[in-house]
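Internal tracking record. Fields below are filled automatically when a chain is submitted to the structure queue. Please do not edit lines marked as system-generated. If the sequence contains nonstandard residues, flag them in the REMARKS field before resubmitting.
Queue: standard
Priority: normal
Entity type: single polypeptide chain
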Amino acid sequence: MTLLTSQGGQVIHNYIFTSNMKNFILFLLLLILPMITKAENFIYDIQLAGYQFNQYDDKGNADLKIFMEEFRTFPWSEQVGKANGGSEPTISVRNLSEKTVYWVSAAPHEEGHVYLLGIVYPKVKKSFFGLGKDKKIRWVEIYVDEDGSAVEDIASAFFDGNFESLMSQLSTLPKFAEMESQR
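SYSTEM-GENERATED OUTPUT FOLLOWS
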């Protein structure tokens, strides 16, 4: 204690302040970094009606708000049924870290259209009629949402990384198809 002079006290004070600031900055980084990283983990693209299946317009980073704004403002009615041998209109979002894709497309139905909701995810499949070695593939499951009412809740689960909830919600919809993904 005899070492505490005004200069020594000032050094201790500065050390405590610096140490507290470092802890505060570290806390902020730990709090904010997942949000920044999360936004950068998602990118989205759009396919207009008639695009080739491997043609799409990259739009950049996405979050739930951006994705839902695109969904709500997309000209579905104008685009549906104009595929001409190409794709129907589709908005896709990719989770780069999980290697999954959630997409919403529209298809003609009676006098309007229905939404097709798809999830593409890595899956292990047995080769040679189930007797061979495990093979990693990309699997797609497609469901029908007649009025688009399930899009936001499923998108929310996708952006939250809650694959179990996402699959549970999709399973309440009629299944349209499932197959190995080409994309």
